[in-house]
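User: I'm preparing a small set of examples for a lab meeting where we compare how different chains pack in three dimensions. I only have the primary sequence for this one, and I'd like the structure in token form so I can line it up with the others. Please keep the answer compact; I'll paste it straight into my notes.
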Amino acid sequence: MEKVDILLSVYKQNEKYLIEQLVSLNNQDYPNIEVIINDDCPDSPCDRGIFETYLTKVPYRILEQDKKNLNYTKSFEKLVKASTGDYIAFCDQDDVWFSNKISKSVKTLEKENALLVASDRQIIDGDGNVIVDKYRDEHHGQTESWHTGDDITVNNLIVTHAVGMVLVVRGEFARSTVPFSVYTGHDKWIISCASKEGRVAFIDEPLVQYRRHGHNVSGVLIGIESKKDYEEKRVLINYNLIQDFLNKYPDFKDKDKLLGFATARKDHKIKDLYKYRSIAPNIAKFDIMLVFVPDFLFKTMILFARKLR
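Assistant: Understood. Below is the structure token output for the 309-residue chain.
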């Protein structure tokens, strides 16, 4: 049976959450798994004994620690480069996987002849209580309405269509996407590459529990407090991501549309934002509003944008 590498990046972990995650990895019903671990916090390394204690059924290896923090995108890039599996699965340190997460994902990849598969997810709080039983049942935006076989390349480059911990990817393909762009997370990059190069699939049932505890790395407009922040950390960063993607795929069929939307955002071109609004309707709406709103009203707009997602 094909080998699956579970790529786990840890950083200043909550021990209770990490133990729950390791137990869920240990209980996977897929028989050929290896867990590859990168500790991305050299100043406060993880107790390695925790892996020996809780990964009793599956082999694991810990990569040599770097002298400085890589950040989560480059930590996962390092893990991908170290992988040898036929498939890889990205793993965060504070979630919980259902026991059939790997087996069902691999089966779907084979059945659909896909490069990448994502699944739905439950949302749990810091105490493990389920607060959303099925994410798609309560979120009906563009990022939660795609299906197996859809071309989501352009849209995903603007707004990520699946979080990393729900992804399982063909190993050889994943390794071909290295280096990841430094202007985004590993999930957005690899989903975009997979959708451009082949077929992506979706499993319409939760296979993981995503823990929302107030300290998650990702989130809507996290770290944005002013129009300048938004320009630098969202608009220009996304524009640079698109440049990286087009450097990798200069023949991309939707290059003009993608670049047109990114340029319209950067240059505040209302007409073009409206023209390309179907790529990311909420972002187009937000950016058009932003042209007319003074900075002191920006905090209100941030609250509005967070409700839209």
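A couple of notes for your slides: The chain has a mean pLDDT of 93. The chain is about 45% helix and 15% strand.

User: Perfect, thanks.
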